[in-house]
Design brief:
Layout lengths: L2 H61 L3 H7 L9 H37 L2 H14 L4 H27 L16 H25 L3 H9 L4 H30 L2 H6 L19 H8 L5 H31 L8
Protein name: Phosphate transport system permease protein
Family: Belongs to the binding-protein-dependent transport system permease family. CysTW subfamily.
Subcellular location: Cell membrane
């Protein structure tokens, strides 16, 4: 056998030997990465469990205190009110404000996302996308100042018009408050705050629509809007739902903007234009925490536990909705 034939015969064996020699190092690196990734995932679960345990332990004194003793020890809880009766209106106000903001923000966010992804020229889309993302970086206290000092007086004529002309609808029942430190104003400000989150996620999902789907719709004679309706929106439905849930989570936990705008009250009222009817959990904690005694702090932490559970349920529901359409979703 010639030298060249011998080299040819030996080459595969040498290559296999080289691969075998390098494999143990790669296996060690792979196992190390797997351990680190698993640890990171477990750390998230442990942190979530630690937060839940902390809230339960610190809220337990208020949860086990009789209603009469609770009202005597905490000045802002009415006489004879149990802890659940105290938390109930706060949960109602929190959910109502968040859902109101979501109803305002989602249609506008979808429209902006579609304009950036499918209508605007590339240069305009890039600049507009940057401006929308920049809105998310504005601190909530700035939104509170803007909403309370500038926006609320300018919305007052609109709220009075709604109360005068649509007051037969419970949501717009009058008389409208002056100044308009009402839940409707809070809803508008929260909608502006969650708008960049929903827009950014929806825009990225719409941009992931398979090009062949869009071209097929256009080739069949669809207009641009029909193409979006038949190809883009179905593909991005789960992603839009995920974006809406992220925005809802932000609205549920917002504190300073609500605290600086809303005139608080504790009732189950759907009158969005009347002051002194609603309060949210986060704003109430910020308002009462500084002057609370130990039992009062425990009661406030109990309201925080309720908010924690609400947020957890919202995120679990969002994951369930996304998982139902994971085979045909721009969110995965």
């Amino acid at each position: 056998m010639s030298t060249s034939e011998q080299r040819t015969a030996d080459a595969p064996a040498s290559a296999r030997a080289g691969l075998g020699a390098g494999r143990p190092g790669r296996d060690v690196a792979g196992r190390a990465f797997a351990v680190l990734a698993t640890g990171a995932g477990a750390l998230i679960l442990l942190t979530l469990a630690a937060v839940a345990v902390f809230l339960v332990i610190r809220a337990w004194p208020a949860m086990t205190t009789p209603a009469d003793e609770l009202a005597d020890a905490i000045s802002w809880i009415p006489e004879g009110t149990t802890l659940l009766q105290y938390i109930g209106p706060l949960v109602f106000g929190t959910l109502l404000a968040a859902l109101l903001a979501l109803a305002m923000a989602v249609p506008v966010a979808i429209g902006i996302a579609l304009f950036i992804s499918h209508y605007a020229p590339r240069r305009l889309a890039s600049g507009l996308g940057y401006v929308v993302d920049l809105l998310a970086a504005i601190p909530s206290v700035i939104y509170g100042l803007w909403g309370g000092l500038w926006l609320a007086p300018r919305l007052e004529p609109a709220w009075h018009w709604l109360a005068d002309n649509l007051g037969f609808i419970p949501l717009f029942a009058g008389p409208a408050s002056t100044p308009p430190r009402v839940l409707m104003t809070v809803g508008v400000v929260l909608a502006v705050m969650i708008l960049p989150i929903i827009t950014a996620v929806s825009r990225e999902v719409f941009l992931q629509t398979p090009r062949l789907h869009e071209e097929a719709a256009l080739a069949l004679g669809a207009t641009r809007w029909e193409m979006i309706r038949m190809a883009v929106l179905p593909f991005g439905r789960s992603g839009v739902i995920s974006a809406a849930m992220l925005g809802l989570g932000r609205a549920l936990g917002e504190t300073m903007a609500v605290l600086m705008i809303l005139s608080p009250g504790f009732s189950y009222s759907f009158a969005l234009l009347q002051a002194g009817e609603h309060q949210t959990i986060a704003a109430n904690i910020a308002n009462q925490f500084a002057e609370a005694n130990p039992l009062g702090v425990s009661a406030l932490i109990a309201t925080g536990l309720a908010l924690f559970v609400i947020t957890l349920v919202v995120n679990m529901a969002a994951r369930w909705v996304v998982a139902r359409r994971k085979e045909f979703s721009g969110a995965n």
